[in-house]
Amino acid sequence: MAHPVSGKARSRIHRLAVLGTVLAAAALAGAGQTMPDGRPTPSGQPVPRWLSLKSDEVRARFGPGLDYRILWEYQVSGLPVQVIAETEEWRKICDPEGGVAWVHRSVVSSRRSALNTSGAEIPIRSGPSATAGVRARLAPHALVAMEDCEDGWCEVRVRRMRGFVRQSDVFGTQSRALCNAARPAGRGR
Length: 189
Hints:
Blueprint: H1 7-31, E1 49-53, E2 58-61, E3 70-74, E4 80-86, E5 90-94, E6 100-104, E7 108-109, E8 113-115, E9 122-125, E10 134-138, E11 143-150, E12 153-158, E13 161-166
Antiparallel strand pairs: 1-4, 1-7, 2-3, 4-5, 5-6, 8-11, 9-10, 11-12, 12-13
């Protein structure tokens, strides 16, 4: 024999169903960001992704913790690095030379930058086109603040001047992982 459900109970059941749906949607949204091994990222952010170093004294470690030995120290504030794996507190990064190391999350910033890794100047154009006028030149091994990339061009900023560089000409813009996340920390590709 079925028991009738009161209006109050029905309302409570409805609220619980709505709450369950919202929580399930939130869990699915967070589950969309995974590391290369398929585990969800602790930060909820995609991996790989680009960050930059906050200071000119960042210690690169062999593993995710203060107990791991220091491999080297980065000495370039704003250097673009690619996060290839992460723990809640630590980021495994790939640097412009192909080095892999762990750094604490407090020493990286979501501010984007790009690096001219070549030995030649790169034109900064007035628009996202190879035929647009040249506004300035990015010196070899120079850093520039970066906004966003679209259709092979990245908008960059140097003081008040804005312009565009070809995405393939700078480090800090690639969408694929540049270093293998399973590789142990250390130098070399």
